Structures are given as structure tokens and as C-alpha cells.
Amino acid sequence: MPTTPPQAKSTIDVVIADKSPLILGGLVQIFDRDDRFNLVATAADGERFLEAVERLQFEVGIIGWNMPYLNGQGVLQSLQKDKDAPRLIVFTGNGAPDIPRQVMRLGGAGFCSKSDQPTVLLDTVQAVSEGRMVFPFMDMSRSGSDPFSGLTAREQELLASLSRGRTNRQIAGDLSISLNTVKFHLKNLYGKLDVKNRAQAVACYLNTSGVA
After folding, report:
1. Whether residue 111 has pLDDT greater than 70
2. Over the stretch 127-172, which tens digit does the pLDDT of each residue have?
3. How far apart are the two ends of the chain, measured CA to CA in Å?
4. Cβ–Cβ contacts within 10 Å for residue 115, how many?
């Protein structure tokens, strides 16, 4: 008797990691309303996401960039050589211009900004599940000399805050870190960018990112 071919999988299994309970709650509702997806689990940080990778089977992971215990960069590095790892999309509100390039370099499959419409993230997950890569436009000719390529995720976050005019004390409050920690990160940041103060750092950021 003729055999019946197996049916194609009808839904895409997804796990989401984000430090914000509000963001997680909103994404749960968005994905639950779309029949293309099956939300398998959520995680509050990168370490818990890696635990989900070890014990669950899913196709696409959506991770934040700035997460406690293990950030998005750390998650990508941990899974970079794992051939069976899910395809990863970084979903972040961090505006540092080099993050998409870092995600691509570390083996990520896609990048979405939290300022994008929810449909952009949903369509990105669909495309990534089909084997495509989804990134914003990047001038790859500058990748070898990008002054931001050596910055840590925290340093990029601080640089984006500086560009918005935030003071050291405001940045400390925004990121829930001490004022001395902010000063420590800024000292390292200035050294890597070869600048002397915040005004020069912001000018470097604006000139490189093309922000008006």
C-alpha cells in the first residue's frame, strides 16, 4: 500500500528571553494570538535561556541584548559552535550602532529593535525559521575599522545613554548600577574610543552612526 508522506510542521516553536516582565508579558500575548507560532517557554535572563536550550526542543530563540547573569552576547558565544542550537534573533532597545554587526559575527540569525512594530518581529521569526537571515542595513566595508567593535554590551549601552543627554547619576539609576560603576565603564569606554570626555564620545557615536 502507498505510504502517506509526513505532514509539514504547522507551527514554529519559539522561546523568548528578556529581562523585563512587561516585555515578556506583551510578547506572550502577541505570539499566542498568531497561529504560526508555538511559544514553548520564556526566560528572564541568558542563563535560564541556555537551560531551556538544554532541556527543550525549539527552532527559534528571541533574546535580549542586555540581560542579567548572561547577556545576549554571552548567549551567542555559548551557542556559536553548537550545530543543534536554535536560530537566534536579538530583540533589543539598545541603540548602539554596532550591535547588529556583533550579532551577525557571533552567528545570530536576525536582529529586531524594540522600536519596530510587532509584525516586524513576527515576520523576522517566520523568515529565520525558513533559513533566512534578517538584519538592518549595515555598511560592512567599515566593519574592520569600526571603533565600536571592541566595546562591551554595557559600554555600548552607556554610550547610547550619553547620546541621549543622560547624566552619570541618571545612567546609574536607569541601569540600577552604582555611580562609581558608571564612572569605571566610562573610563574604559573613553579609552577604547580614544576620546577624553563625554562630548567627544557622543560626537564619535553620532558621526559613526549617522544620527542627526
Report:
1. yes
2. 999 999 999 876 555 554 566 767 787 888 888 888 888 899 999 9
3. 68
4. 9
Kindly report, residue by residue over 40-97, the tens digit of the pLDDT.
Answer: 999 999 999 999 999 999 999 999 999 988 999 899 999 988 989 999 999 999 888 7
* Contact indicator for 42, 24 with CB cutoff of 8 Å: yes
Nearest to 105 by CA among 63, 135, 62: 135
Q: How many CB atoms lie within 10 A of CB 118?
A: 16
Query: Which position has the grid cell 509539514?
Result: 8
Residue ranges matching CATH 1.10.10.10 in the chain: 147-209
- The correct CATH number of 12-140 out of 3.30.70.260, 3.40.50.2300, 2.60.40.290, 3.30.70.120 is 3.40.50.2300
The CATH number of 147-209, from 2.40.128.20, 1.10.10.10, 3.30.479.10, 1.20.1380.10, is 1.10.10.10
Give Cα separations from 62 to 53, 90, 173 (angstroms): 12, 6, 27
Across 194-199, average pLDDT: 85
Numbered ranges of CATH 3.40.50.2300 in the chain:
12-140
User: Residue 184 gets which letter from DSSP?
Assistant: H
Q: What is the pTM of this model?
A: 0.65
Residues 6+ apart with CB under 8 A from 151: 96, 98, 159, 189, 192
Closest of 111, 101, 115 to residue 134, by C-alpha: 111
